[in-house]
Amino acid sequence: MSDTTIRTYTEEMTETEAESTEQESVRGCPECGGRLVDDSEHGETVCEDCGLVVEEDAVDRGPEWRAFDSAEKDSKSRVGAPTTNMMHDNGLSTNIGWQDKDAYGNSLSSRQRAKMQRLRTWNERFRTRDSKERNLKQALGEIDRMASALGLPENVRETASVIYRRALNEDLLPGRSIEGVATSALYAAARQAGTPRSLDEVTMVSRIDKMELTRTYRYIIRQLNLEIKPADPESYVPRFASDLDLSDEAERRARHLLQGAREAGLLSGKSPVGLAAAAIYAAALLTNEKATQSQVSDVASISEVTIRNRYKELLEAADVTTASN
């Protein structure tokens, strides 16, 4: 190709790009100068002032299917699963299915089954290349197990996974067990999300004791500079009321009792779980609903003595608040 031809081709391309840039910058109706809008339903570009159709038969780059809710959208989507911090590889690696069948649903022969089993073994080895990934895989599996047992939502699991990853990257694990740091991360994430669980509840589903949990938890939040507010007794009320099958009126009364105790300065220095359990029991008495101290104790994992002492204080504070008003 000669220099003249190259020069001519370059000039033509430059003129074309300049024209397209000028058209994009103007973006106005050629008739009246009005604003152009895209009509995605009919695949046209029209002027909203005079109605002139400037472009038609536009290409729709969206999906060809329609969905009317999130579940239907997820079932029809043909893309892969979203990335997640709950998996050690962020969900980006491949996985060989456990079914010993081919693409047509036919069973594999014994020789092919043995081959697939070897492939699964090597695939699992390649997914965890070093000790750090093996550590992360074990910890995230532990977090998912405990979160399922405690009924915690997915956002809490994601937050706990991020906290554990930070602890691992900052070398906070030497001298501490994987289970201890994973449990502490989950406990901190639950409190950050406003869906706290008591230390006794977390210890029941964990593989460590309460003392190790509290020690590791304090160390993690101090080293990672996590800002975690003290647990609010009102955040436990909906769960306790639901487990005891109490009415909305009883739940509202329990919240009112706790608010009165807060105004009277009774919440400081007391267990939020015990206060919430006492408020639920007192609210059940006030609304004539059936909830014994033993039932509340089982749900909240708090002794009956604590419930008896706290609910009397809550009722006295409510009486004082009512009299002052």
TrEMBL record:
Q: Which residues form the TFIIB-type domain?
A: 24-55
The sequence repeats extend over 141-224, 235-316
Please provide an example of a Pfam family that matches this protein in its UniProt record: TFIIB
**Compositional bias (Polar residues):** 82-94
Start-end of Acidic residues biased regions: 12-22
Which UniProt keyword terms apply here? Initiation factor, Metal-binding, Protein biosynthesis, Repeat, Transcription, Transcription regulation, Zinc, Zinc-finger
Q: Which Gene3D superfamilies match?
A: 1.10.472.170, Cyclin-like
The Gene Ontology terms for molecular function here are: DNA-binding transcription factor activity; TBP-class protein binding; translation initiation factor activity; zinc ion binding
PROSITE patterns linked to this entry: TFIIB (PS00782), ZF_TFIIB (PS51134)
Q: Where is this region: Disordered?
A: 1-26, 72-94
GO aspect biological process, one term? transcription preinitiation complex assembly
Residues annotated to bind Zn(2+): 29, 32, 47, 50
Q: Which CDD domains does the record associate with it?
A: CYCLIN_TFIIB_archaea_like_rpt1, CYCLIN_TFIIB_archaea_like_rpt2
| Gene Ontology cellular component list | transcription preinitiation complex
Q: Which domain of life is it from?
A: Archaea
Is Transcription there in the keyword field?
Answer: yes
**Family, as annotated:** Belongs to the TFIIB family.
Described by its record, this protein's role is as follows: Stabilizes TBP binding to an archaeal box-A promoter. Also responsible for recruiting RNA polymerase II to the pre-initiation complex (DNA-TBP-TFIIB).
Recorded protein name is: Transcription initiation factor IIB
Could you tell me which species this protein originates from?
Halomarina oriensis
